[in-house]
Amino acid sequence: MNMKQKFAEMGRNIVYVKEVETSELPDDLRAEAGDLETLFSVHNADGEQLALVANRTLAFHLARENSMVPVTVH
């Protein structure tokens, strides 16, 4: 049986984890990143950035601790 689904409602608890080069960040964030070359950004289904963390493991842990389902963006 085919049923219409509202995709926005289905993906409410999904967050997307994306690797970010620190060289692409604004100066103030780059300074906070110290000597890290990459950070990981966590985004909601609307593309809004929710967090910027030091590594992928921390991004996934943060998402799960907040009842979200993390997926990696390539």
Explained architecture:
The chain is an alpha+beta fold. Helix content is 28%, strand content 31%. The protein is built from three helices and four strands, in the order H-E-H-E-E-H-E. The chain has a four-stranded mixed sheet with strand order 3-2-1-4, with helices on one face. The mean pLDDT is 88.
Write the layout of secondary structure elements.
Layout: H1 7-10, E1 14-21, H2 27-33, E2 38-43, E3 49-53, H3 56-65, E4 69-72
Parallel strand pairs: 1-4
Antiparallel strand pairs: 1-2, 2-3
Quick structural overview:
Helices cover 28% and strands 31% of the residues.
Overall strand count: 4
Structural category is: alpha+beta
Calculate Rg over CA atoms: 15 Å
Return the string of H and E elements: HEHEEHE
Pick out its properties:
74 residues, alpha+beta, four-stranded mixed beta sheet
